UniProtKB/TrEMBL annotation:
CDD domains: CHD. Residues 74-209, 320-460 form the Guanylate cyclase domain. It comes from Herpetosiphon gulosus. The keyword Nucleotide-binding applies. This is Guanylate cyclase domain-containing protein. The keyword Nucleotide-binding applies. Keywords: ATP-binding, Nucleotide-binding. PROSITE patterns: GUANYLATE_CYCLASE_2.
């Protein structure tokens, strides 16, 4: 159909239109169909804007073009205690609605408090959150973060007594704050981008959370210094401090900034001729494509097909998970000269792109890059948007491919920093809950939660550099295809009994 009005735009529309709409507009490109395409893209753009951090939504990069900048401010890391117990309590009845209602009630309230307090939710890490309070030269960002943390802890009271089939359980939260400088970067390829933070400030924030207590806000030394004299604090070891919540309700208040709803301006169709509609579709594509590149391809497809309902159906699944740690890059910024920073971002972009390609080749999903005390963590899973009978084997083969990619990666050579990029990997197989979590019409994300993710993460933590550890369920799935060495048992956090573990090696 050489005279089709969407001929030039068709390659860009393939991945962004639902199958039925794509077919109907191609066989019948009348104004009514073109309007449907425009309205779908407008809805999808709004959804994608809610899936990425505020900075990315407001100033999306050119897909595939790496960019980075030093930023200063206060970082908050939160961790939810008791969620695994909640998941286990509903594992038998697979009560997706009950679990999702609790999750979304929790996250919606926390995200609203963060937004009203001047914060920017950067990333979900399972049930944890990383939040940024930017320095703006006018407000004390650490004071804003402390006040947000106190509000969040007060809001947790409604999750103290949750009824489940296994009895009443309680959810709690730890919050850690640190103030410092870090690099924010967009890395990847035009097909898949990722927003990452680099620098010691990110790791220091996680240390602050780990040093704290459930129900409290814990400050690093730098954060404590920034709010000295503003709050009463209990000093802990190693310079950490817990904020004492002795503020009156009126003194703390509900927000520090006027609440706003983050929305990109929607387009309006005044001229409904075919030529005008095609022009508006192209303009909408120009703002949608950069945001779409920040989602895994299969997750993007899921959002595209469910955009009309604006809801991704939750589901319980049995699947394999890879949890890996990538070290050697995250701590480099502190040692680099300014002219070396683009080289570091290029190196990070390269290894991320290759790892993501290995995952997509096997039909998996690279969920995201998160931040750890010892580098960057990457969650990878299989069987969420399209299950295969051999997903366990695919996961194991992908882990081996990633291990080889990292081993073959060039070392980082800078004037004051020389380091090899290294990785360690944990593999697990078990039940998980896949759902869109967050605010139903605001900041949210498609996420995977469950004990299988925790087990893979703890196996990764127990592994040595360059090693792949897996638990017995996955070992049994691949026993006939790939060699595994029995390493006995180890004690993993949250497990009552010792866990049998194996190391994975390439086939001869």
């Amino acid at each position: 159909m050489p005279n089709h009005p969407l001929t030039l735009l068709e390659p860009r529309l393939r991945s962004l239109l639902p199958a039925m709409l794509y077919a109907s507009v191609w066989v019948e490109p009348i104004p009514e169909r073109l309007i449907q395409v425009f309205e779908h893209l407008r809805t999808l753009r709004r959804m994608l804007g809610d899936y990425v951090p505020r900075f990315v939504a407001e100033t999306p990069p050119t897909p595939g073009l790496a960019r980075s900048a030093w930023q200063e401010g206060t970082l908050m890391f939160t961790d939810l205690a008791g969620f695994t117990t909640l998941m286990d309590a509903h594992a038998d009845d697979h009560a997706t609605d009950q679990v999702l209602n609790v999750l979304n009630s929790y996250f919606a309230q926390m995200v609203e408090i963060i937004s009203k307090s001047g914060g920017n939710l950067l990333e979900w890490t399972g049930d944890a959150m990383l939040v940024q309070f930017p320095a703006d030269g006018e407000r004390n960002d650490t004071a804003l973060a402390v006040r947000a943390g106190l509000r969040m802890q007060r809001a947790m009271k409604q999750f103290n007594q949750l009824a489940t089939p296994q009895g009443v359980i309680s959810l709690g939260m730890r919050i850690g704050l640190h103030r410092g400088r870090f690099i924010a970067a967009d890395i990847g390829t035009p097909k898949r981008m990722e927003y990452v933070l680099l620098g010691e400030a990110v790791q220091a924030t996680k240390y602050a959370e780990g040093a704290g207590e459930v129900g409290r806000v814990c400050l690093s030394q730098a954060a404590l210094h920034a709010v000295e004299g503003l709050y009463r604090c209990e000093l802990l070891n190693d310079g950490y401090a817990l904020v004492c919540d002795d503020l009156a309700e009126q003194a703390l208040g509900e927000y520090d900034i006027a609440p706003t709803k983050r929305r990109q301006a929607g387009g309006f169709l005044l001229d409904r001729s075919v030529a005008a509609l095609v022009h508006e579709i192209e303009e909408m594509l120009n703002t949608t494509e950069p945001l779409a590149s920040f989602l895994p391809v299969s997750v993007l497809r899921l959002l595209v097909e469910t955009a009309a309902q604006r809801k991704v159906p939750p589901q319980w699944l049995q699947l394999p998970v890879i949890y890996m740690n990538l070290s050697g890059i995250s701590d480099a910024p502190e040692y680099l000269d300014p002219d070396e920073e683009p080289l570091l971002i290029k190196a990070y972009s390269r290894i991320f792109a290759l790892i993501n390609a290995a995952v997509e080749t096997s039909g998996g999903i690279l969920k995201n890059v998160t931040y750890d005390k010892s580098g960057s963590n990457i969650l990878i899973h299989f069987g969420v948007t399209g299950a295969h009978v051999d997903d366990g084997l695919r996961a194991a083969q992908t882990a081996l491919a990633i291990q080889k990619l990292v081993e073959q990666s060039p070392a980082l050579h800078f004037r004051r920093y020389q380091q090899r990029i290294r990785c360690k990997i944990g593999l697990a197989y078990g039940p998980a809950f896949a759902a869109e979590i967050g605010e139903p019409r605001g900041r949210r994300e498609f996420n995977l939660l469950g004990d299988v993710v925790n087990t893979a993460a703890r196996l990764m933590a127990a592994a040595e550099q360059g090693q792949i550890l897996l638990e017995a369920s996955l070992q049994q799935l691949i026993d006939q295809q790939l060699p595994c060495v029995d390493l006995g048992t180890i004690s993993l956090k949250g497990k009552v009994s010792p866990t049998p573990i194996f190391s994975l090696h390439p086939a001869n």
